[in-house]
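In response to a reviewer's request, we include the raw inputs and outputs for one of the modeled complexes. The two entities were modeled together in a single run.
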Amino acid sequence: GAVVSQHPSWVICKSGTSVKIECRSLDFQATTMFWYRQFPKQSLMLMATSNEGSKATYEQGVEKDKFLINHASLTLSTLTVTSAHPEDSSFYICSASSTRREEQFFGPGTRLTVL
Amino acid sequence: EDQVTQSPEALRLQEGESSSLNCSYTVSGLRGLFWYRQDPGKGPEFLFTLYSAGEEKEKERLKATLTKKESFLHITAPKPEDSATYLCAVSGANSKLTFGKGITLSVRP
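The model returned the following structure tokens for the whole complex.
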């Protein structure tokens, strides 16, 4: 149980384009989903928290107009990187949790490369 | 501000050589301490949740313990497939996870 998927697993795009990443909880209802960013050999940095049907809460320093988050249902959240630039290249990981448990369950991650 | 410090940064063991990974933490209102395993290019895989000092949990060759200031992940007779980065995280009053930098474990056959 507690399986989270992400799509795509990797994406390469040109500078200035937008990229959408999907995060799905496959076998439980995710009342809260989280988006993280991870640079090589560093730990996970929380970007934003989203609750189903509500606007996402962004961490300090994260541009909400650049990283659009939608949590439209209890099983799906999307992260759209708008007007991507090379400095946005990173490993993006989502996680999901339910009201029943404290744990967050993570997706496999999406490797974004912006040329 | 919640803080998590993991040590050592890297650990190299011979297969069968038991050891412990340390996680020191400060948190306002501990809701849980979590251990995850992360393989290269993958998302973290959940291992354990500990809620209060004195609690212990086991899974195969891994055992996690918790005190008021730190947690240990004990690895008994490790195998090469245990090689990974082990992440410790705490959830405090704001329900957000604060991660340590991780410990990269290499187990040689």
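As requested, we also summarize the result in words. The longest strand of chain B covers residues 19-26. Residues 10 and 26 of chain B are 22 Å apart (CA to CA).
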